[in-house]
Each structure stands twice: as structure tokens, then as C-alpha cells.
Automatic annotation (TrEMBL):
Protein name in the entry: glucan endo-1,3-beta-D-glucosidase
PROSITE patterns (alphabetical): GLYCOSYL_HYDROL_F17
InterPro entries membership: GH, Glyco_hydro_17, Glyco_hydro_17_plant, X8
TM spans (from-to): 491-510
Localization (cell): Cell membrane
């Protein structure tokens, strides 16, 4: 048994020689979170094969799943494993417990399984404030255990925070950490600086937009191009922000700078967009999800940086790989995934020109459907449908009564099928998906049930083979201990008042 004072000595030595410790590659990456609240989750070997086929190189697990860690052996996939919140007390209280945890969950698999980081807890400062005093002792104990196992050069340890730990986030130059948490955050940042580890943040522009959509432009949230006059302006730095995520990241950098910490980078451990929601979440759509995640990936892989730090691009983990259909309401909780549990795409990302990440998302597969603007005039839509099935010579046989695409029997559904039929018949040529402004091109497959849209018939056999070789199995026990996302919404909403008061003034200034 290892004596506590010996581990303390190891910790002290490791902090003195902090320049030897582990860090991620200088190249920014896009990873994915893998939750297991899935009724038909792939068996571990099939899951890993799927990850490799998709060319996913970084994943984050919410628990050190032994089956997945074994299956990752011999691959080039970097994995971050998490310590659940309910183990925080035990690890903070005992160096021996921390050493045992590292030996059992890291040393037992590394280096054949490329464990890159240990993520301690989940949003402890905001979801379990009573446990805040435990964070730094637990981090130190885990780091000392890594030193003892001679893994500190390969594996770092940090802890993810909610965006709510940062107050007054816009303009970013006026942001600062919640002063009631400063006694915990400052020494934690010093630890991250000494061990060359990143500040982990869970950043969700979706929630910022949903709670304040009368003030935040959707285009800004989705990384869509904005004219210079509509970009968010920080009046103190004159920096222009073309997307909300960059503003949230820079708010973290300014908050650290206010505490005289300038050498800790930001790692976004969770971000994403749901593809489906209930009646109160009208912007949780496949179109918005694919737009956000596609543009997010491009933004990271283009090494765009942020306005404050154009030389530094934060790596991100998309939340999440699979729809977790076992999650509790609201509906969006079960619909954050890029794929269903059996590896079929929830929607098809637009990946053209940004590398081989997510290989089977078939970047060339596009569809023409009705524009999702809720203000589309039904008379205009009906006229466009009549033209497509008449002079346009689209094949509209499948939307006739009794045929596979007749239901749901409404103009929007029938028009989408007719538009796609015409669009595909024209070889997806520019201008063939317009219909007087009521149509749009999407990579999200609009097929449903037995109704297969014309564009879906062009899917490659290779994509189909991936689906066939990754059939489902029952999910294992869920070991995750995480904050309900509704709590995250509430926490974020509570700190946004100043943000949008400032933002409103800026909008008036820009106008």
C-alpha cells in the first residue's frame, strides 16, 4: 500500500517539473461525446469499428467503460474518460483511492488504448456547489497517481465547467468568473497552468439562443456568414464576433486574464445542437443541427481561432455521437446525436472540403425540400407544387392517395417530395431548388417510414454496408452520473441578463 505522504511528495515534484506533463496535440481536433442511455447501443467491438470507419480520432466517455476501453486497444483513437460526480468525495479524501482508480481505469489499458485525459466530475461548481472544496484535492490526488504510474507525460486531468461560472459574458472583455466561486477557481487555474492542462468548458450556444432568441440572431448562433454591420462588437476591444461560440470562449479567456492567468487554453468538452424537440423547441430541427455542427467542424478544422486569440483554436467535443433515446423529457434530451444507436445517421452533415472526418456522412447527398421558415405562404407553396408535378415533370406518383409518401397528407409534405423529385431529375443543378424562395437544399434525409425520397435512392452501397455491419444490441448499465440539462438551462439563463442588456445597446448602436 502506498503511503499518503509519498504520493504528496510525488505531486509536489510533478508540479515543480510541470513542463514535462501531458497536453493534447497542437493541432485542433473535433471529438465526440459517447453517452450510453441508448436502447440499442452497438456492442463495443462494432462501436470501435464504426468510429474507425468514420475517422473519428477523439472520443469522450462519461465513465471508464471497460468493454469500450478494451475494444479501443491498438487503435489510434484518443479517449478521455470521466470520473463520475459520485466518486469525487472518495478520490478527494484518499490518495490511495485515487491511485487505485488510475491503476484500474488508466494504467490497465494505456498505452495500447490511447487514454489522453481524465475528466473529473461534471459541472461540479454549478451543479454541486457543496462539493466545490473537493475539486482541487481530487485533481491533485489523480495527478499524483498519474505521476506514480509514470503516466503524467501522456495523460492530463481537468474538470469540465458550465458556462454559468462566467458572469457578464458579453461583451467578452467585461466577463469575469463568479466571485462566489473565485476562491475555488483561482487555485484550480493555477493547477491547470502548472500541469499544462486545459480549462474544460461545456458551451451551448443553442441554450443561449433559446432563452434569448429575440436578441440573439440565429445566424450568429449557427456560424452563418454575417455582414460586418451585423457582427457582435465588443466596444472595449473593437473585436467583431461572427459567431456566439467564439464570444463564449473569449469570455473565458478574459475571465482568466482578470485573475492574471494567461497560459491556460480552453477545451470545449461539450457543444452541439438537438435535431428534434417538443412544441416549445421549434429550433431543434435537423436543418439547424446539421448547420451548427457542420459549420462548427469547419470552424475548428480551419484553425480559425477566436477574435481575441486567432492563433489558438479550441478543440471541441460534439455532444453527442448517438441519440440517447432513454433520456427523460424534454424531447430534445434524446435528440442531440449525429447518429441513432444502430449507427444510421440522424442527419447528414455537410462535410465537403473539410477533411475526412465523419467519412460516411456522404457530403454529396443533398435534397431539395420546403424551406423551414414558418412564414411560408401556403398559396405560393401550392402553386410551386402544382408546377413541379405539371410543367416541371417531377415524378409525383408516390404522393398520390394510397402510395407510400401520401401521408402525412398536407401541402408541405407533398411539396417537399415533388421539389426533391424535380431537383434530382435536374442533376441537382444550381437553381433547380428555388421555387420562388419556398425551397431549400439540405443534407438531412427527409425520408420517413416507408416513404423514401428520390435523393435517398442515390445512397452509396458503401454507406449501406456500414449500417448493415453495425447492428444493434442491448445497452449496458448506465454508469453516468450527470447534471440534468434542464438545470444547465436554468443556470445559463440566470447569468445572461447583463449579456443581453449590453447586446441590446450594441444592436441599437450598429443600427
Amino acid at each position: 500500500m502506498i503511503k499518503s505522504n509519498y504520493l504528496s511528495l510525488l505531486l509536489l515534484l510533478s508540479l515543480i517539473h510541470y513542463h514535462h506533463v501531458a497536453t493534447f496535440s497542437d493541432d485542433p481536433f473535433v471529438g465526440v461525446n459517447i453517452g450510453t442511455d441508448v436502447s440499442n447501443l452497438l456492442p463495443a467491438p462494432d462501436l470501435v469499428n464504426f468510429l474507425m470507419h468514420q475517422k473519428i480520432t477523439h472520443i469522450r466517455l462519461y465513465d471508464p467503460n471497460p468493454d469500450i476501453l478494451r475494444a479501443l486497444s491498438g487503435t489510434h483513437i484518443h479517449v478521455t474518460i470521466s470520473v463520475p460526480n459520485n466518486q469525487l468525495l472518495a478520490i478527494a479524501s484518499s490518495n490511495t483511492t485515487a491511485t487505485s482508480w488510475i491503476r484500474r481505469n488508466v494504467a490497465a489499458y494505456h498505452p495500447s488504448t490511447r487514454i489522453a485525459a481524465v475528466s473529473l466530475g461534471d459541472e461540479v461548481l454549478s451543479s454541486l456547489p457543496s462539493a466545490a472544496p473537493l475539486l482541487l484535492p481530487a485533481l491533485r490526488s489523480l495527478h499524483a497517481a498519474l505521476v506514480y504510474s509514470n503516466l503524467h507525460n501522456d495523460v492530463f486531468v481537468s474538470t469540465p465547467h458550465s458556462a454559468s461560472v462566467i458572469l457578464n459574458p458579453f461583451p467578452p472583455s467585461q466577463a469575469f468568473f463568479n466571485q462566489t466561486l473565485e476562491t475555488f477557481i483561482l487555485p484550480l487555474l493555477h493547477f491547470l497552468s502548472q500541469t499544462n492542462s486545459p480549462l474544460m468548458l461545456n458551451l451551448y450556444p443553442y441554450y443561449v439562443f433559446m432563452q434569448n432568441r429575440n436578441l440573439v440572431p440565429l445566424e450568429n448562433t449557427l456560424f452563418k456568414p454575417l455582414p460586418f454591420s451585423k457582427q457582435m462588437l465588443d466596444p472595449n476591444t473593437l473585436l467583431h464576433y461572427t459567431n456566439l461560440l467564439d464570444a463564449m470562449i473569449d469570455a473565458a479567456y478574459f475571465s482568466m486574464k482578470n485573475l492574471n492567468v494567461t497560459d491556460v487554453t480552453v477545451l470545449v468538452t461539450e457543444t452541439g445542437w438537438p435535431s428534434r424537440g417538443d412544441s416549445k423547441e421549434p429550433y431543434a430541427t435537423p436543418s439547424n443541427a446539421l448547420t451548427y455542427n457542420s459549420n462548427l467542424i469547419k470552424h475548428v478544422l480551419d484553425r480559425s481561432g477566436t477574435p481575441l486569440h486567432p492563433e489558438t483554436t479550441s478543440s471541441v467535443y460534439i455532444y453527442e455521437l448517438f441519440n440517447e433515446d432513454l433520456r427523460s423529457p424534454p424531447v430534445s434530451e434524446a435528440n442531440w446525436g449525429l447518429f441513432y444507436g444502430n449507427a444510421t445517421p440522424a442527419y447528414l452533415l455537410r462535410m465537403s472540403g473539410i477533411g475526412s472526418f465523419l467519412a460516411s456522412d456522404n457530403a454529396n447527398q443533398t435534397y431539395c425540400v420546403v424551406e423551414e421558415d414558418h412564414g411560408v405562404d401556403l398559396k405560393t407553396l401550392q402553386a410551386a407544387l402544382d408546377w413541379a408535378c405539371g410543367p416541371g415533370r417531377a415524378n409525383c406518383s408516390e404522393i398520390q392517395p394510397g402510395e407510400s409518401c401520401f401521408q402525412p397528407n398536407n401541402v408541405k409534405n407533398h411539396a417537399s417530395y415533388a421539389f426533391d423529385s424535380y431537383y434530382q431529375s435536374q442533376g441537382k443543378s444550381p437553381g433547380s431548388c428555388d421555387f420562388k424562395g419556398v425551397a431549400m437544399i439540405t443534407t438531412s434525409d427527409p425520408s420517413h417510414g416507408k416513404c423514401i425520397f428520390p435523393g435517398s435512392k442515390n445512397l452509396t452501397n458503401k454507406t449501406k454496408e456500414v449500417v448493415n455491419t453495425t447492428q444493434s444490441s442491448n445497452a449496458g448499465d448506465n454508469l453516468r452520473f450527470r447534471t440534468f440539462r434542464s438545470m444547465k438551462i436554468s443556470a445559463i439563463n440566470n447569468i445572461l441578463h447583463n449579456y443581453f442588456a449590453a447586446f441590446t445597446i450594441l444592436l441599437l448602436f450598429l443600427l
